[in-house]
Amino acid sequence: MKRKYYSLLLWITALISCDKEFLEAKPDLALVVPHTVKNLQAILDNTAIINNNTPYLGELSAGDNFIQPNRYQTIQVHERNAFIWAKEVYETSVVNDWDWSYRRVFYANQALEGLVRLPEKEKTGPDYELVKGSALFFRAWAFNHLAQEFCKPYIPSSASSDPGIPLRLESNINIRTTRATVKETYDQIIGDAKLALRYLPATVQVKTRPSRQAVYALLSTTFLQMEDYQNAKLYADSCLALGADLTNYNTVKPAGAFTFKQFSPEVIFHSYILHGHGFNVANLDVSKELYQQYGANDLRKTLFFKDNQGIVNYIGSYSGAREFFSGFAVDEMYLIEAECLARSSNRVEALKYLNTLLAARWKSGTFTPLTASSDEEALKHVLAERRKELIFRGRRWSDLRRLNRDPRFAVTLSRTVGATTYTLAPNSPLYVLPIPHDVIVMSKVEQNPR
Amino acid sequence: MNKLILYILIVAAFHLEAQAQIKVTGQVFSKLSEQPLPGASVKQSGFNSGTITDSSGRFSLILQGIGRELRISYVGYQSQTVVVARTDQPVNISLIPEDNLLAEVLVSTGYQDIPQERAVGSFVQISNEVINRRVGPDIISRLEGAASGLNFIRRFATEPDAEPSLSIRGLSTFYANAEPLIVVDNFPYEGSIKNINPNDVESVTILKDASAASIWGARAGNGVIVITTKKGRSNQPVKVQFNSVYTLAEKPDLFYNPDFLGSADYIALERQLFARNFYAGDENSLSKVIVSPVVELLIAQRDGKLTAAQANAEIALLEKQDIRNDVQKYLYRQGANRQTSLNLSGGTSAINYYLSAGYDNNDHQSRGDGYNRLTLNSQNVYRAIKGLEISAGINYIQSKNTFNSHGLTELSPVSGKSIYPYARLISPDGKPAIVQRSYRSNYAASAESMGLLNWQYKPLEELELSDFTRVNNEIRINGGLKYKFLQYLSGEVKYQFQRMGDNSRNNQDPRSFAVRDLLNRYTQSNGTNPIPYGGILNLGNSAITSHSGRGQLNFNRDWKQHRIYAIAGAEVREIDNFKNASRLYGYDNEVLNSQLMIDYVTRFPTLPRNTATIPTGTTPLTNQLDRYVSYYGNASYEFMSRYTISASLREDASNLFGVETNQKRVPLWSAGLGWDISAEPFFKLDLLSYLKLRATYGYNGNTDKTVTALTTARYSSDPLTGLPVATILSPGNPDLRWEKVGIANLGLDFATKNKRISGSIEVFKKNGRDLLGDLPLDPTTGYLGRHRVNFASLQTTGADIQLHTSNTTGRVKWESDVLFSYVKDKVTRFDNSGLALSSYFTGFSIPIVGKSLYRLYSYPDAPLDPATGDPLVTTNGVLGKDYVNYVRNITSGELIDKGPQLPPYFGSIRNSVSFKGLAVSANITWKAGYYFRRSSISYDALFNSWTGHRDYAKRWQKPGDELYTSVPSVPLLSNTSRDQIYERSSSLVEKGDHLRLQDVNLSYTPAFRLLGSYAGKLRCYVYASNLGILWRANKQGLDPDFPTVQYIQPKTYSFGLSANL
Question: Which of B138, B287, B885, B908 could form a disulfide with B925 if both were Cys (CB 3.0 to 4.6 A apart)?
């Protein structure tokens, strides 16, 4: 009788003893659960999410552009508010500058965590290293964007106590958001970027992927933002060492509505700014004050702009289309070199970099190299050209935050909409955008005072 | 000592009485036909000798000893034991035919069969008799109005015969599957339940509470419908059942649909719009946008190609035309369904068998649509060695649908537009008429002169060319071993394989408009065509394959006053679902040849003016795999046949759940108590003969296949770089688990003396916890939007009452079955922040905590401007016409909440009267306490989509009308916000309450002697269904169960014959 029981039990056990794998089958076979280096690379190659639509509220607030009066009411509410530096910015709008930057961070974290889960034997080789280095770069880059809008600039004396941005280093959605300090924020950016250098190739074929050159550019701009001009120069040197060719604008033949082609030779890393209603070729009128600063023989005046019956349109984006380029290009490195040299009392070298750049921008034979009798004059030349060269590249807002701290370069912005004139004083708390309302409600983090 | 003396005395007394031989006389009848049964065997219990009834069913028997018990048996009838109370009177005994097992109702959970009177859970048994009362090709439709708590919902149906969604005791989920689990012969049924031949069904049990359903664990949350098919019985002579029925369905009434504006009004409006240059854009469009025939006539008149008199004469003709008449005449017909089934069953002591075949052939009311189904079924049980039972069965079903009809919807001239009301299908010369489609008529007419194929559309010709079929093949194979180790312990192993393959084939003839249109559009300026001339064959394949295995131990023992039933087992299931579709161009149906070299990459210029790639007609492959591993157990203990305790446990793991859930191993459980009060010695109520109290509590689960526990991504190629890229779809949720529904159920079963009134009353409370709801995430997480996690909850309370009364007994028997259900739900936890206000107006309105789910929200009624008939709304405190801002800024608090969209009260009353072999029964169903939104005129739809509404006639036309009507005036320009304010206003919300005569069945079972042995075994019947609404609360003549259909379910009449030999 007992044997009968055993045989029965055996039957049942045989039927139900399934190994773990039985339940680990994917329920929908069309869904790719990211678990190979190839899948993880595909996550980071998603340019629509990773490269494109970088933050735009800073650029919108930076004062080089005006919304055409008849278009002002048609743009979105948060764009209107950012445009006039209102205290309350978002009202009911979603804050893409925040959301999409943290989506980049989420993707980068997914990739980094995916790499950790790989079998040991796959944790090596160029494919693995490209994913690892790219993910670190993208995370650092996204944190850098966020730090330009949502926390105070880096001031060495208070950086360890000023609230920074939330540093999400894991993709787990259940982790509650907290704010780091400004110092921790920049430490993280620099740390991630320096680590990325170990994994990335010097240059890449596909300009939407980062290279060591791009990481140097990121580090250089970051140190510039921190007013660490020594390091900024060091990394600009490293960047230019991997490629320093400028495009001579005399050779540029505009075809179609926009001057440049996508992935133009000067571009180190491709990305573009969010194309909102407010920051849109059709609605924008370039600041006349700035437009008039371009010399008559400065090719940028015609290659960057189109005077459309008094309204100046911008057509010179390195994105090759209507979207405004926000990646890294060689020209920016020349300007950082020049600025750092001027600040370190080496105006001769500084002007050399600046004049090399400008010679590639002016009509052949018309350019007279700039000269300066003092370091300050040289610096003024560099900063004026920086504004003109890097127009609509997402740099102006950071520059204002940085330069305003120096009374020599501080500016008060002003705009007139209808009958009302709005101004933005240097170092105003309005230079730090509020944290999105949802985030405050859900995570109870500290709001930025405005 | 005294006791011993007493005992001796008693024995002696009996002994003395036994000495006197007592003669009993009596007569045996059939309970069903009330005819005497000749040849029935009558024996005294415990004795082998006996007698047989004579030709009039009479018998006489001498009783032996002190026994007073008679045992009467007859082939095809249940044997019966009666105690003779008085021997001085003849005994009348009625035998119950075996088909109508009234004595002991077994309810099936799919894992075990339980006698209903011992069950403590909420089971509803729908007997074979009730199932067979109705006629129809599928089993599920026969349950409508037959079970308490079961509601059929058709509020979104656009076709009256669309599959309804079923709900048992209301809702218990927000986003997951809300349909009950359907179990056929012990295993969950995958695929279309329409394949089951209702003639093969023995009974249906509905499991409503936790105690009944929790054995199904993570899939029981919406209740379970257990279908048990017929089997052979041991030691039963061969039995043959035959049933054949012919059903006739009336032609549909297209005039029911209020979304239609008659030709005269429509033309008058077109004239107005034409005068306002409304059609100028379409007329001058380079895309050759279609304009209606009347507008064409007006254009011709304006351009001087027609005189005013000519144009008016033509238009006057069109004004008399109504497309609905033509459609009804040429595109619809009387439907006819034919159903025949035959089965054979029987058994010896070693083998039971059941064999059946069924054939259905239906001609749908839509001309060109049809359905046929062949079902073959064989179920056998062999008892090879003592104690061992081997069962094996095979079920094959082939069904074929044809979809070749053309209805009003198919006549739509271009996507998004309705057919103009004055279209005609037959031209005055009697030939198929041209109906405008896709392009301007002059452009289409000039096609052949441009070297293209004819570009005109004649619906009646299309009807002939259409060749679209779908064939479904299903095979179910089941096998089992059951071995009795001991008298009280058995073990069984069951396995089922099911494969359902579905193949659709749409062979588009080269002469069909769809093919000609495609070919014409891709014709290049040099006359070449990248699409080869020929037909187009669209093929679709899908297959569901499932394997289910189960091992189970059964324990069943009673001793003294104790009785224990217990089962324990384990189950493994895998369901694989595969789907693809493809297309062949240049297809020749004669030789099966097609062109394979098609350029799907190049963007070609297309006519009239566009560019496009050739549509591939291929959809991405989908393949889904569900796997479950489950362990379960159920035990009940009965004491003195009065007190019952029962409990069940089930643990599920699945590849659908998250890692954490599969590791935690938290079982779903239930427990219940039963108390048969009437069995207590103190219970002495003459009125009530049976009273039982039941109480249960426990948890059922529900799963949602669309939510995944894994981080998932979808591949595409990058628009910038062309590299393969992945987009993360969901961030993964290791905590994903099944939804959990806690159910408390309290039931009271009762029967009065002689079962004149019997029934049950149940009250229940369901608490849905861990329900999937969308939670907005902190955007800092990097996952944007709402994330579906187990956090919401919903509470449902209700009551089910079922009553059976025998109003008269004797020769005329009148019985009533009354069902009453009440169900009310309340959202207890949900996050609706960030959801668009427009979603409040949908059928699945946004849940609000504290309110019931799916409320009908509306805008407050807008008064009409006495001067213009425009609706007036208040924006920023000012009454005016700022419709856009009104719609944009209104808050959910300002909306009017009329009530629920699903009926909280519903039920049915079935009356059956029988007299001799004649029986008639009618079922009346009702629903109450709910609301629906009726459609009305939308001027945007009227101007741009050519969709009118009969309410147009009630519109504001002149000052003063605002006192009588709420229908706004015709605006100069269409304005969707203005339309919305009216369409979503509370004046269009109607009460859904109604009373419906569902069906009537009249049957006759002749029992004349003339029929000999066939007496009482043949039945002919007439059945009528969809007989209409007897009363409704709305004054619009609308059927509240079908608020969105083009026509209501046509009445059907069936004529059938069945034999039970």
Answer: B908
